[in-house]
């Protein structure tokens, strides 16, 4: 199992200490968390995209560029890029630039996002989101795969003989499809022969398993070998302690603060309490042993190769504590008992040297 740490850069007052961070302080905290992720030997770091309080993650490529300058080896992910509202030309340019700055460590995850506040900001009606995503994605692929692109559609003015610059370093940049609530996302991923990443954050296992099963069915429908389908999955919040009772006690104030946000209420999770969420949902709250057991149960259901974990909302000291605990007591078991078929290769030839050179220029 490969392990990615995700952040939406949620910036609420700390639920235990009351400490509030300025945006500048929060950006610094996120950069330190990414560096810690690499130093602990975890595999990837991801920044989501949101466009409203309490999140500061409106510009993932900018944040990931700063992280690229401070790291050398971890994969850098977007979780997700809300392509349903973005100009594909701008996205093609921004992420190809980031691909070079990271030395070929970039992977993007596309999706419509799950916060409806971004639609009026970018002039998109919510009912158009799926058609918008499919059209913009088709154009983004062409802009990366081809030169001298001519195109006409609904999402932006026509293009005539356009070659975006820079060209991506990786050919191709790996693309995942974020999957949370609709078979339209799993259909799009299967059609293009690309991996999915299940959000697996707010609902019982059965909802997400149905989407993953649909992805694999459609993968086979398009004539692909089922063993080549790749799935990643999130896991809700992470909080480890020596006993489940201690973990519940320590995490409860954070859970209640998160549940009070408009973003959490929009997700309409059916869980009625923290205990319900831990017993019947994906949250990793408990002892190292119970966390491993839960991940194993989800692995049995999903067959995923990558797990995403998050410590958003905790104090920075607790974030470090939790990630260290996971890396030292959970990750070794996952790697030993749950082999993964992704991220087994090095970045493109010369990319590591380019990344190291960039480190020297910025260090």
TrEMBL record:
Molecular functions per Gene Ontology:
monooxygenase activity; oxidoreductase activity, acting on paired donors, with incorporation or reduction of molecular oxygen
Residue ranges of domain Luciferase-like in the record? 4-303
Q: Where is this region: Disordered?
A: 341-363
Supply one GO CC term from the record.
cytosol
Q: Which Pfam families match?
A: Bac_luciferase (PF00296)
Residue ranges, compositional bias (Low complexity): 344-363
Task: Name the keywords, alphabetized.
Answer: Monooxygenase, Oxidoreductase
Record's PANTHER family?
Answer: BLR5498 PROTEIN, LUCIFERASE-LIKE MONOOXYGENASE
Return the protein name: LLM class flavin-dependent oxidoreductase
């Amino acid at each position: 199992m490969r392990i990615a740490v995700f952040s939406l850069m949620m910036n609420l007052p700390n639920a235990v200490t009351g400490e509030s961070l300025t945006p500048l302080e929060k950006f610094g905290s996120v950069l330190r968390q990414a560096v810690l992720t690499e130093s602990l030997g975890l595999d990837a770091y991801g920044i989501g995209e949101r466009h409203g309080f309490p999140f500061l993650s409106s510009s993932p490529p900018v944040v990931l560029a700063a992280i690229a300058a401070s790291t050398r080896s971890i994969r850098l992910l977007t979780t997700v890029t809300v392509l349903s509202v973005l100009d594909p030309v701008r996205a093609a340019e921004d992420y190809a630039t980031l691909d070079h700055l990271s030395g070929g460590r970039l992977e993007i995850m596309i999706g419509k996002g799950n916060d409806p506040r971004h639609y009026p900001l970018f002039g998109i009606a919510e009912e158009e989101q799926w058609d918008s995503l499919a059209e913009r994605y088709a154009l983004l692929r062409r802009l990366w795969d081809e030169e001298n692109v001519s195109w006409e559609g609904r999402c932006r003015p026509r293009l005539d003989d356009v070659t975006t610059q820079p060209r991506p370093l990786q050919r191709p940049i790996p693309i995942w499809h974020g999957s949370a609530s609709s078979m339209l996302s799993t259909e799009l991923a299967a059609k293009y022969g690309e991996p999915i990443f299940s959000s697996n954050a707010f609902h019982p296992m059965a909802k997400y398993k149905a989407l993953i099963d649909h992805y694999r069915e459609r993968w086979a429908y398009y004539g692909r070998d089922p063993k080549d389908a790749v799935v990643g999955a999130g896991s809700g919040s992470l909080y480890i302690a020596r006993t489940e009772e201690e973990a519940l006690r320590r995490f409860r104030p954070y859970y209640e603060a998160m549940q009070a946000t408009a973003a959490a209420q929009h997700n309409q999770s059916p869980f009625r309490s923290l205990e319900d969420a831990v017993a019947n949902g994906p949250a990793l709250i408990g002892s190292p042993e119970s966390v491993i057991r839960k991940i194993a149960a989800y692995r049995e259901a999903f067959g995923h190769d990558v797990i995403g974990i998050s410590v958003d909302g905790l104090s920075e000291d607790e974030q470090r504590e939790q990630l260290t605990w996971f890396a030292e007591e959970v990750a070794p078991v996952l790697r030993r008992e749950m082999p993964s078929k992704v991220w087994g290769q090095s970045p493109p030839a010369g990319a590591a040297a380019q990344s190291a050179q960039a480190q020297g220029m910025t260090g």
